Amino acid sequence: MMEAKPKRRIVTENGDTGEDLVLATLIGNGDDVGPLVRHAFEMGRPEPLVHQLKNVAKKKEAEIEDLCKTHYEEFIVAVDELRGVLVDAEELKSDLASDNFRLQEVGSALLVKLEELLESYAIKKNVTEAIKMSKICVQALELCVKCNSFISEGQFYHALKTMDLIEKSYLKLIPLKVLKLVIERRIPVIKSHIEKKVCSQFNEWLVHIRSSSKNIGQTAIGLTASARQREEEMLERQRRAEEQNTGGLGELAYTLDVEDTEQDSVLKFDLTPLYRAYHIHTILGVPERFRDYYYENRLLQLKSDLQISYAQPFVESYQTFLAQIAGYFIVEDRVIRTAGDFLLADQVETMWETAISKIVAILENQFARMDSPTHLLLVKDYVTLLGTTLRQYGYEVGPVLDALDKSRDKYHELLLEECRRQIVTAITEDSYQQMVIKKEADYENNVLSFNLQTSDIMPAFTYIAPFSSMVPDVCRIIRSYIKGSVDYLSYGVNTNFFSVLRKYLDKILIDVLNEVILETINNNSIGVSQAMQIAANISFLEKASDYFLRHAAQLCGIPSRSVERPQASLAAKVVLKTSRDEAYLALLNVVNTKLDEFMKLTENVNWITEEMPQGPHEYINEVVIYLETVMSTAQQILPMDALYKVGVGAVEHISNSIVSTFLSDSIKRFNANAVSAINHDLRVIENFADERYHSSGLNEIYKEGSFRSYLVEARQLINLLSSSQPENFMNPVIRERNYNTLDYKKVATICDKFKDSPDGIFGSLANRNTKLTAKKKSMDMLKKRLKEFN
Question: Where, by residue number, does the polypeptide cross the bilayer (predicted)?
Fold first, then answer.
């Protein structure tokens, strides 16, 4: 190679072109001449390149020849060596052929073994694959068996989870199309079977929960009733503490709500079938269908529960009816609180509106049919318990309470009529005798309990009360009426119902009690003792009206001090006072009628007697005895003001009777002896009036109005007729001082009848006393002047 380079330079130097040199260099270096060839053909001049390549080829051949010449000997030696190699190669070939034969003999057996081995490997692979496929099938079948077992045991959730596992993890891997197809076909069937089974169990639960709703409602309402009773007892203790002015009022007030019963822990009912059914339907992908199914069936149950049987009286079935409704909605509340989004609040609201409208309609209809306040109150109490119970669960019970409020007047009408019958019985069966109380317990029950005592000191027993047995009997009736009214008004729409109760209390006292008393008073058959006892009874009933108002306030939780003000008293108190005055008038009418029977002056008095009377007439003793009896009885029974009215009325009537008798047309004339006799009678009455006025203690109260002062007209008339100078009547000063109650016309009429000498044949011839003559002249003068005056 070192010797070839100079030869290249020789070629170059021998006239080679530059292009040939470049091409030769590229070929010598082993570079790619492709670009040059491409370029020559692209230029359309391949001939120069072919020429250059030929030149290069020639130059290479010349170089080879030179090289061969240079290494000829070496080449010969190499050829010889090559021939030796060929010999060796033949030998080697022979050896190789021999070895190949032997190898073929050995290799054939090995190839058989290899084929067997490869076949074994293929079988193993197939067996492994078959085992794997079999395991998948076995596992799938085991899951199917397990699923069937779960279904037979009722464990549907586990069965569905197993089927879900089969579908997601095994169904695609099952190599057997038949098995895969069978499983694919059975899965929907099994799901449908599970759904039917779950629905069947759920339907059983629907029946069970409906039958249990009554017990659930009764238990819940019972808990509410117990809580209400505890609260009422607490309020009662608080009221007693207030009445006794004891401390700890704040503590009592704060302990009302300390005990709070958790109804959920007491009301135990199983919602598991519902949860399970909903969960399974959710897994099945049809939760909406189950929600609709539940809502529709429960709504049908509700509508069925809201139907009542008219074959059975409502008062016997209302508790079952209302407890069933309460239990129904307690269940729905538990469902909506514990079942997630299973039940919508709007659905429950729709069910409640359906129920509330039906309940209100039933209550209004049944209340209109009832004729017993007790029955109406029983239903009302249970309805309020229902309302309180369901309000705790968030239900709006206002319409139910409004229905109760609408029946308020109906209840009070029934209650009023019932109390009217009792009051009429108590009054008509009254003995009108003072009540005899022998025991302290009877005194507390009949007197102290109604604040009827006349003294704060406990009396000695046996105690004669100033009223008859009618008073405590009526008080008990009114008290029961107040209790019945409070029971109905409590727990209703209005929490502050005292004003309503007050109106109803006035109604029974005015429209019932007062009317019955007035009917009794206006009965012409009553006697003096009856009239007097009725007047006394009214006085105590008037006093008891303050107790009724305080009792009503206490039951309503109103402080007693708020109703103890005078302006807070009942309107009935004024009405009873008026009736008491009516009773006094009736008493006076009876007394006056009896007095008229005793007196009968036109029959008992000889108006033209010739004898000078030595004393009063006999009838006046009977009058005094009668008045003594009346006043003594009145002093025991009636209050002092009534006693005073009775005394004043009696003596005033006697005075009026005397004057009226003188004016009577049946008395044509009278003489001085008759006037003297009447004067004796009048003095007896005056003495009696003074004695009773002072002995009864009325003189300490009515200092300027004694009984005698109401006899003044009769006294002034008798004084005028007995006067030696009757003409002084016309003297204004004397008349104002001595005869101010006498009327001119009455005096004129009476004086015309006055004849100071008796009729007789020899009357005019009788010797007359000078004094009598002067008196006669004076009387004649008075008659003359009265005529002139008139």
Answer: none
Residues 392 and 205: their CA atoms lie apart, in Å, by 25
Helix (H) or strand (E) run with residue 736 in it = helix 732-738
Which residues pair with residue 464 across a beta bridge? 436
779-789 average pLDDT score: 79
- What is the spatial distance between Cα 708 and Cα 735, in angstroms, rounded to a whole number? 19
Whole-angstrom distance, CA of residue 12 vs CA of residue 15: 6
Largest CA distance in the chain: 241
Residue 25, pLDDT > 80, answer no
- Nearest residue to 631 (alpha-carbon basis) of 692, 576, 580, 703: 692
Residue 417: band (very low, low, confident or very high) from pLDDT cuts 50, 70, 90:
very high
d(CA 262, CA 223): 10
Residue of 14 and 187 predicted with greater confidence: 187
C-alpha 785/C-alpha 748 separation (Å) is: 9
> How far apart are the C-alpha atoms of 383 and 388, rounded to whole Å?
9
Please choose, from the candidates 683, 637, 275, 652, the residue with its C-alpha nearest in 3D space to the C-alpha of residue 464: 637
pLDDT (0 to 100) of residue 260: 42
Cβ neighbours, 10 Å, residue 24: 20
Q: Which pLDDT does position 771 carry in this prediction?
A: 53
Q: Which amino acid is at 406?
A: K
The answer to whether residues 646 and 638 touch, using CB atoms and an 8 Å cutoff, is: yes
Is residue 540 classed as helix, strand or coil in its secondary structure? helix
- Looking at the DSSP bridge assignments, the partners of residue 436 are 464
- Split at pLDDT 50, 70, 90, the class of 83 is confident
CA atoms of 393 and 388, how far apart (whole Å)? 9
Q: Are 227 and 261 in contact (CB under 8 A)?
A: yes
Q: Round the CA-based radius of gyration of the chain to a whole number and report it.
A: 67
How many whole angstroms separate alpha carbon 447 and alpha carbon 465?
Answer: 9
Of the ranges 89-93, 422-426, 616-620, 727-731, which is most confident? 422-426
Concatenating the DSSP letter of every residue in 64-88 gives: HHHHHHHTHHHHHHHHHHHHHHHHH
Q: Are 623 and 685 in contact (CB under 8 A)?
A: yes
Q: Pick the range with the lowest mean pLDDT from 377-381, 563-567, 698-702.
A: 563-567
Looking up tokens 């604040």, which residue turns up?
Answer: 451
- Is 246's pLDDT higher than 60? no
Q: Can you give the three-state secondary structure of 571-626, one letter per residue?
A: HHHHHHHHHHHHHHHHHHHHHHHHHHHHHCHHHHCCCCCCCCCCCCCHHHHHHHHH
Among the residues of 429-495, which ranges form H helices? 440-446, 470-489
Between the CA of residue 171 and those of 162, 194, 582, what are the distances in Å? 12, 20, 106
- Does the pLDDT at position 611 exceed 60? yes
Give 656's Cβ-side CA count (13 Å radius).
11
pLDDT of the residue at 257: 41
Residue 114 to residues 100, 117, 122, 472, 665, Cα–Cα distance (Å): 19, 5, 12, 129, 173
Is it true that the peptide bond before 633 is cis, omega within 30 degrees of 0? no
Half-sphere exposure for 170 (CA within 13 Å, toward CB): 25
User: Directed axis angle between helix 528-555 and helix 571-599, to 10°?
Assistant: 170
φ/ψ (deg, to 5) at 754: -80, 120
What pLDDT is recorded for position 325?
Answer: 92
SS3 437: strand
Distance between CA atoms of 338 and 328, rounded to whole angstroms?
A: 16
Amino acid at position 74, single letter? E
Side-chain half-sphere exposure of 141, counting CA atoms within 13 A? 10
